[in-house]
């Protein structure tokens, strides 16, 4: 009886780390997929709103973004959303108007560093560029990325 | 007694041989969802940008291509060749999305399609 109990305990001890790793892996990967979709959706919505003339300095406009799934992360400063108006004129590409939601100070907008690498525009054309960086906060950092990046040009 | 020894390991191995392929299927499904969602967003943006030019203008297609390149470049997330068609005022994009686990049963690619109407701004 005691030997049987000991053997069951030993088997459980051997399998428990494998099961725990599998479960943590599934959980972490699933969470990353969900957050990726949320990040994409926030970027898409922000670019669409910006192209429609939204002013992200206005509290109701910000609230629309924060109210999206995953938008809370921006409000809690676990991520940052950059929305930039890019124009190409005779002198090249310029960011003419820019908004920042989240202000984490950890990432920089591509529009700030290299606006010419976002979208190929013809002279006189313009586009709105939304870029989001999010802290993934994963339970298994080695399996999933520690930060998520999404972008949308409209 | 000795027959019971190692029972948990055998049970776990049998269960894992069923669970792991299903987990793989779920991961492939999730990746395809992300690809579909990103392609739909890219086509939506490309259609909006193309709509700045009058229907029939050669700039409609080139603008759509440029905005597609910006939002969903060739090879994005391991996708294959991108086919772009404009019929009437509908922009349709087809890509071959790569699978990771389904290839074990010889499904290497899955076609993902997104379409959006080009509406003048």
Topology at a glance:
The complex is a heterodimer of chains A (154) and B (121).
Chain A: H1 2-51, H2 59-66, H3 72-75, E1 79-89, E2 92-101, H4 110-113, E3 126-135, E4 147-153
Antiparallel strand pairs in A: 1-2, 1-3, 3-4
Chain B: H1 7-50, H2 58-71, E1 82-87, E2 90-98, E3 109-117
Antiparallel strand pairs in B: 1-2, 2-3
Helix pairs in contact in B: 1-2
Can you tell me about this structure?
- The complex is a heterodimer of chains A (154) and B (121).
- Helices cover 43% and strands 25% of the residues of chain A.
- Chain A is of the alpha+beta class and 154 residues long.
- A four-stranded antiparallel β-sheet of chain A has the order 2-1-3-4.
- The radius of gyration of chain A is 22 Å and the shape is elongated.
- The model of chain A has no long low-confidence stretch (mean pLDDT 87).
- Chain B is an alpha+beta fold.
- Helix content of chain B is 48%, strand content 20%.
- Chain B is built from two helices and three strands; from the N terminus they run ααβββ.
- In chain B, strands 1-2-3 form a three-stranded antiparallel β-sheet, covered by helices on one side.
- Chain A binds chain B through residues 3-4, 7-8, 11-12, 14-15, 18-19, 26, 29-30, 33, 36-37, 40-41, 43-44, 47, 51, 118-121, 127, 151-154, and chain B through 1, 4-9, 12, 23, 27, 30-31, 33-34, 37-38, 41, 44-45, 48-49, 66-67, 69-71.
Write a concise keyword list for the protein shown above.
heterodimer, A: about 150 residues, alpha+beta, four-stranded antiparallel sheet, 4 helices, about 25% strand, B: about 120 residues, three-stranded antiparallel sheet, 2 helices, rod-shaped
